[in-house]
Amino acid sequence: MPAICKDSDLQEGQSRGFELDGHSFFIVRQQGTLYAYRNHCPHLGVNLEWMPDQFLDSDGRLIQCAMHGALFLIESGYCVSGPCTGQSLTPLPCEVRDDDIWIEL
């Protein structure tokens, strides 16, 4: 489980993408909790972001696929709108230790 960034580098309501050892993933902080997912849309298999570190819709309430607009719940990765409705993003375990965010790939 490698450390990927400082906990203080990810503010409330922000998302951030990472590439590590051939894996693409992102983290979102919502209401003080970290959520990590593989950066892979279940519909087309493409990366989700439309710009670097931009994984959320305009309201910052849902994860949005830039390719076709599918919307996913931040808390579970479950798709609530779009061509992959009913499918989910792949979650990754993460935790904060000594102001570092650690991820399990």
TrEMBL record:
<dbReference type="GO" id="GO:0051537">
    <property type="term" value="F:2 iron, 2 sulfur cluster binding"/>
</dbReference>
<dbReference type="InterPro" id="IPR017941">
    <property type="entry name" value="Rieske_2Fe-2S"/>
</dbReference>
<dbReference type="InterPro" id="IPR036922">
    <property type="entry name" value="Rieske_2Fe-2S_sf"/>
</dbReference>
<keyword id="KW-0479">Metal-binding</keyword>
<keyword id="KW-0408">Iron</keyword>
<keyword id="KW-0411">Iron-sulfur</keyword>
<dbReference type="Pfam" id="PF00355">
    <property type="entry name" value="Rieske"/>
</dbReference>
<dbReference type="GO" id="GO:0046872">
    <property type="term" value="F:metal ion binding"/>
</dbReference>
<dbReference type="GO" id="GO:0051213">
    <property type="term" value="F:dioxygenase activity"/>
</dbReference>
<keyword id="KW-0001">2Fe-2S</keyword>
<keyword id="KW-0223">Dioxygenase</keyword>
<protein>
    <submittedName>
        <fullName>Ferredoxin subunit of nitrite reductase or a ring-hydroxylating dioxygenase</fullName>
    </submittedName>
</protein>
<feature type="domain" description="Rieske">
    <location>
        <begin position="2"/>
        <end position="103"/>
    </location>
</feature>
<keyword id="KW-0560">Oxidoreductase</keyword>
